[in-house]
Amino acid sequence: MIHVRSLDEISLDQSWLTIGVFDGVHRGHQEIIRRLTTGAHLARTQAAVLTFWPHPATVLGDGKVKCLSTADERADLLSALGVDAVITYPFDAATAGTSAENFVGQLHRHLQFRRLLIGYDFALGKDREGDAARLSELGGVFGYEVEVVPALSDESGVISSTAIRKLVATGDVSAAANLLGHLYSLHGPVVPGDARGRELGFPTANIQCPTEKILPANGIYACWAWLEGQRLPAAINVGVRPQFHSGATHPLVEAYILDFDRNIYGADVRLDFVRRIRDEMRFPFVSDLIEQIHHDVRQIRQVLAAESPR
């Protein structure tokens, strides 16, 4: 798969295309991608996805949107679904002010798409004028067909990135995983900390996570830690460590990788969140905290042992 950040870096012929933010590449997105890749590959052509960064709501709304996936993570998820080309298009005020006709014309010059798949509520262009009807009209001009993919719903309603972001923000990572179709993850380099965990007998790796990503609510989580291609069980603390008055104003992400004791400073670690175990809290004595951590670790082992692969 190729991943580019400018249309000037790509030239396709007779491709199939879908356009959207695809934050998190959840189960609803996966249905669109499944139809895209299946159809394109049966037609012996390339399946392309155009997505945007930063999130359009960051430009059009009142503040920065914390996302479920970075641009690179999104591209990796799409690649795993069989997509041949991902274009991460820069979304700014100029993009927001471009008419649907001009934007589609620009895309068609570079991608020569003959089929465009869109979600049920998709629209692009200035004032969202490029809805399904308008895009179909433009298809007659540029020579492509439009396929609208219905919303995917479950017992909780229509699956959406907005709903999943709310679940992650409240710590309900297991419910978020059900809607995503995969575990919610954070990843980043291991950076030096204050060695407090080692003093307690539970050495932790401090993960420097991308600022664009949503952090789960403060608390203790059962996770899988991926290091150098190996999946390892881990207990994760997201929070400000109230036991030690750390003075942290932003949550820290600390991973205690079970049955593991290596210096991994600088290594990239991915954390797949399985379940929230409890709130972060302050205990009367440090000995009480240590006893609780032992209990947490036993519970996390049980949770991970019972987890079905995703």
Give descriptors for this structure.
single chain; 310 residues; alpha/beta; Rossmann fold; Elongation Factor Tu (Ef-tu), domain 3; 2 domains; six-stranded parallel β-sheet; six-stranded antiparallel beta barrel; elongated
Looking across the biggest beta sheet, what order are the strands in? 1-4-3-2-5-6
Please provide the ordered H/E string of secondary-structure elements. EEHEHHEHHEHEEEHHEHEEEEEH
Tally of separate domains: 2
- How far apart, in Å, are the first and last alpha carbons? 22 Å
| Radius of gyration, taken over Cα atoms and rounded to an integer in Å | 22 Å
Total helices: the number is: 10
CATH superfamily of the largest domain: HUPs
Helix content: 25-40%
Mean pLDDT: 93
Query: Tally of extended strands?
Result: 14
- Per CATH, which architecture of the largest domain? 3-Layer(aba) Sandwich
Dominant shape: elongated
CATH names the topology of the largest domain as Rossmann fold
Runs in which pLDDT lies below 50 for 5 or more consecutive residues are: none
Q: What can you see in these coordinates?
A:
It is a single chain. The chain is α/β, with parallel strands linked by helices. The protein folds into two domains: 2-157, Rossmann fold; 161-306, Riboflavin kinase-like (Elongation Factor Tu (Ef-tu), domain 3, Beta Barrel). The chain has ten helices and 14 strands. The strands form three sheets. The protein has a six-stranded parallel β-sheet with strand order 1-4-3-2-5-6, sandwiched between helices. Helix 5 (100-111) crosses helix 6 (132-142) and helix 7 runs antiparallel to helix 8. The chain starts with a strand and ends with a helix. The mean pLDDT is 93.
